[in-house]
Amino acid sequence: MQVAIKAERENRQTNVIMGKLKKFVAKESSTVLDPMKPATETSHKVLHARLDGFEIRQAALEQSDSLEPSSGVVFQNYIEGCISFVKTNMSYINPSTGSGSRTARRTMEFGRTYVVRPKGKHQATMVWLHGLGDNGSSSSQLLESLALPNIKWICPTAPTRPVAILGGFPCTAWFDGEELSDDNTNDLEGLEVSVAHIANLLSTEPADVKLGIGGFSMGAATALYSATCFAHGKYGNGNPYPVNLRAVIGLSGWLPGSRNVRNKIEGSHEAARCASSLPILLCHGKCDEVVPYRYGERASYVLSSAGFRNLQFKGYDGIGHYTVPKEMDEVCNWLTARLSLEGSRR
């Protein structure tokens, strides 16, 4: 109970700070950046200077004094990160550009892709998808340390886009959304663009290599949606899904568009066959305050009910929205068994 009360207090404090930052940016950008003219280097510098002098940092410091030491540091880093995103992606602040607009989406470009080469025989290739606001570099550093010498890891970086759940702040995201919800499909187009990009990364791998997708948080959501496209045999727009998946992993995630999954699978014998044969591992911390544990439970229930019978769901007591060594050990052991990898720890 005390943990829940503390989490709610910290959420309220974060919302207050973020509200101040959003109002400040909206006000300053409207006076510095003319919506009828392209943003210039001079106008960017002016807004940079005003952001640097903004009282948000002092407010964050004052608020974080009431938090636990570790939470306070994370809180301050989060605020600094939000300001950094605004400064780095100033073109997105222009008032004429709305969050998730079709014009903005067409110009989105995926960031750098990082690759971790197999240290042994190349038996499998996994695409690993980071969470909201992260990048492929941090994923590659984590995966490089795993005892899976026969796997090649491809770690793409999502496009930087305005994200509605952050009040329009730009950051790396596989799709847009006003809330983290399995019923929220207001950016299905953006989600499918990311899913197609991921499939394309796998489509050039050798024919004898087993293919899979995994991810954390929003990356997990994108991986699970990819699993439904694989089973259905096509994307939502009707184009064929080109990759034969052999494993899907979702850590601390949810299932976008869950309402439609069962209809997609039950309407086709081939879809039912693909769904039942695809191994899926879902892991979720029971104290997750960002993507609640019930979202992981519901993803497991919906997928299992739709015919994804080769699914394992594992919950972790006392774990929040992050990964821990025992969870990654579970991932290693599961992949080794499901993909029949040689020379990996079991």
Automatic annotation (TrEMBL):
Pfam families: Abhydrolase_2. Residues 114-336 form the Phospholipase/carboxylesterase/thioesterase domain. GO terms for molecular function: hydrolase activity. It comes from the Eukaryota. InterPro entries: AB_hydrolase_fold (IPR029058), PLipase/COase/thioEstase (IPR003140). SUPFAM superfamilies: alpha/beta-Hydrolases. This is Phospholipase/carboxylesterase/thioesterase domain-containing protein. The lineage of its organism: Eukaryota, Viridiplantae, Streptophyta, Embryophyta, Tracheophyta.
